[in-house]
Amino acid sequence: MKRSPGLVVWFSGLPGSGKSTIAELIIKNVGRKSEKKIILVSMDSIRKKIFPKPNYADQERDAAYRSFVLIGSFLSKAGATVLLDATGHKLAWRYFARKECPRFVEVYIKCPIEICIKRESTRKNNNAVRKKLYLNALARLRKGKRISGLGKVPGVDEPFEESPSAEIVLDSSHESPRLLAEKAIKKLRRFDPKIFQ
After folding, report:
1. Domains of the chain (ranges plus CATH)?
2. What is the pLDDT of residue 33?
């Protein structure tokens, strides 16, 4: 008997927009009620496995996002509901996900870069480059100074390409992650009411 594919939900947005926090809150909230498994796949963890010493070059990023999408697609075709957590600033990567995933929803977490910069600079993170992601990128832009381990930063070096096809858009500039997670769950019910109760 053929298994019906699960839903793939990609939480996209600039670093610091709150997408990871919102996705984790959804897993925590929905996971308690649902009988089916919900899997969170994070680009940060996938990249570390595929590229232990990443250089963040364009070819490497393309390969990382391709692997990221295919993992989500394979899991969904096995019947799992998959939440993808990744900036995904290039439309081509999200279009690839739409093509590969039979049931796909994009949740775009919109947030002004000024707020993202403030959040990232106060983030509790042991990785100094990641903690000062934007500040380092802006310093590099001003001074032309090379920073080891820092690739192109979306929002500074490259634009975030907003998708006209995003099924759900949430503005995280003024509302709490908890409230946004609740809003996302309500909106996701129309795509899978059994999972997002």
Report:
1. 8-112+160-188 (3.40.50.300)
2. 62
